[in-house]
Specification:
alpha/beta; Rossmann fold; Dehydroquinate synthase-like, alpha domain; two-stranded antiparallel ribbon; 13 helices; binds nicotinamide-adenine-dinucleotide; binds zinc ion
Length: 344
C-alpha cells in the first residue's frame, strides 16, 4: 500500500493506494454514527465486505440522477436515523457516488466529516481526489457544489477487476492526461503496458493510480480552488466537455477526443512538435480510445461557448508544449472560431 497526502488551505486529506475495502473500519471514527452512501451495483457486488455501520443509503446510478432531487431522500433518511453534526459519511463507489456523498456531507448540518472508498479508475485518479463535489443542474454538469476534502480516500485496486472495460478505458483517458501534462515517464510507462491493462494487472493499475495522484495532490495542495496551477487538469476538457455533451460518450472517451484537438491546436500555434502530437494520438489509439468524433465545428464551438469555466470572451486553454509539459493561456472564442476548422 502507498500513502499520499493533500495539505491545502481548506484542509487535509490522506489517500491510500492499494488499501482494501476489508480494512476500511480502521479509518472510521469510533463511537460516532456512520452512514454508507453507495450505488446498487457496488452494494450488490461488495456489500458483504462493507463495514458494520448504522445506515446504508443507495443512490440511483447515472448522470441523470446526480441531481438536487436525489439528495432529498438522502437527507430524509439521515434525519430519520438521527444523524447529527458528529456523524460520519462514507461514500463507496465511483465518481458519481463520491461527488454526491461529498456534497451531502458538506452541506448536511453545515458540514460533517466524510471519507471515500473509490471504486472506478476514473474516480481513483480524478474524481475522489481534490475536494470538488456536487451535482448536475438542468443539463449543466457539476453546476451546484462545494470544495471540501474527505478525511481519507481508499483506492482499492482489486475492486477495479469487476469494472467493465469501457469504464476502465474511460479512466485511462484521465491517466493519459496526467502523463501528457506533467510526467513523461508515466506517459512512456502507459505506452509500454497497454497489454497489461487488458489483463487488469494490479501492479500496472497501482502505478497508473499512484503516479496520477502524485501529480494531482501536489498541484491541488497549492491551488485547491482552481485559481491558477490546478487549471492544467482541464487539458482536453475544453473540447472534451462539449464532445461529451453532444455525443453522450463516456467522460474519458470525450476527454481523449478533446486531448487530440487540444494537441493539434498546440501544434498549430507552434507550441508543440507534430511528432509529439502523433505520439499522443498513437497511444490513445493503442488503448482503444477515440481520437475523432463526428460533430461539426459549428456545433462544437456553440457548446464550447457555454463552458462554465469561460472567462468573458475567452477561456483558459491548456496547451501541450511537449509530452509531459503544458502551459495555460487565454484563448478567445474569436480565435478559436477562426482555427477550429483546421483541427478537424
Ligand atoms: N469531483 C471531481 O473532481 C471529478 C473529476 C472527474 C469526474 N467527476 C465526476 O465523476 C463522475 C464519473 O465517475 P465514474 O466514471 O466513476 O462513473 P460512475 O460513478 O457512474 O461509475 C460508473 C459505473 O460503474 C459502476 N461501478 C463502479 N465501481 C464499479 C466496480 N468496481 N465494479 C463494477 N462496476 C462498478 C457504477 O455502478 C456505474 O454504473 C461524473 O459525474 C463526473 O462529473 C468528478
Ligand atoms: Zn475529467
Amino acid at each position: 500500500m502507498k500513502q499520499l497526502e493533500i495539505k491545502s488551505s481548506i484542509g487535509e486529506s490522506k489517500i491510500y493506494v492499494g488499501e482494501s475495502l476489508a480494512n476500511v473500519s480502521k479509518y472510521l471514527p469510533e463511537n460516532r454514527k456512520i452512514a454508507i452512501i453507495t450505488d446498487p451495483v457496488i452494494h450488490s457486488l461488495y456489500g458483504e465486505q462493507f463495514p458494520e455501520v448504522d445506515l446504508i443509503i443507495e443512490i440511483p446510478r447515472g448522470e441523470a440522477n446526480k441531481s438536487l432531487q436525489s439528495l432529498d431522500g438522502v437527507f430524509e433518511q439521515l434525519i430519520e436515523h438521527e444523524f447529527d453534526r458528529t456523524s460520519f459519511i462514507l461514500g463507496i463507489g465511483g465518481g458519481i457516488v463520491c461527488d454526491m456523498s461529498g456534497f451531502i456531507a458538506t452541506i448536511f448540518m453545515r458540514g460533517i466529516e466524510f471519507g471515500f472508498v473509490s471504486t472506478t479508475l476514473l474516480s481513483q485518479v480524478d474524481a475522489s481526489v481534490g475536494g470538488k463535489n456536487g451535482v448536475n443542474f438542468r443539463g449543466y454538469k457539476n453546476m451546484i457544489g462545494t470544495f471540501s476534502l474527505p478525511k481519507f480516500v481508499i483506492c482499492e485496486l482489486n475492486i477495479l477487476k469487476s469494472l467493465p472495460k469501457s469504464e476502465l478505458l474511460s479512466g485511462m483517458g484521465e491517466v493519459v492526461k496526467h502523463g501528457a501534462i506533467a510526467n513523461e515517464s508515466l506517459f512512456s510507462y502507459i505506452e509500454n503496458h497497454v497489454a497489461d491493462l487488458e489483463k487488469y494487472s494490479s501492479e500496472v493499475l497501482e502505478t497508473f493510480v499512484y503516479e496520477s495522484i502524485v501529480i494531482k495532490s501536489n498541484v491541488v495542495s497549492n491551488d485547491v480552488r482552481e485559481s491558477g496551477a490546478r487549471r492544467i487538469f482541464n487539458y482536453g476538457h475544453t473540447f472534451g466537455h462539449a464532445v461529451e455533451k453532444i455525443t453522450k460518450m463516456p467522460h474519458g472517451f470525450a476527454v481523449s477526443v478533446g486531448m487530440v484537438l487540444a494537441a493539434k491546436l498546440s501544434v498549430l500555434k507552434g507550441k508543440m512538435l507534430q511528432a509529439d502530437c502523433d505520439r499522443l494520438v498513437s497511444l490513445l489509439e493503442k488503448l482503444g480510445l477515440p481520437t475523432t468524433c463526428d460533430v461539426s465545428s459549428e456545433e462544437l464551438l456553440a457548446v464550447m461557448k457555454c463552458d462554465k469555466k469561460r472567462d468573458g470572451d475567452s477561456v483558459h486553454f491548456v496547451y501541450l508544449t511537449g509530452i509531459g509539459k503544458c502551459c495555460v493561456e487565454k484563448l478567445s472564442y474569436t480565435e478559436l472560431a477562426a482555427c477550429i476548422g483546421d483541427l478537424r
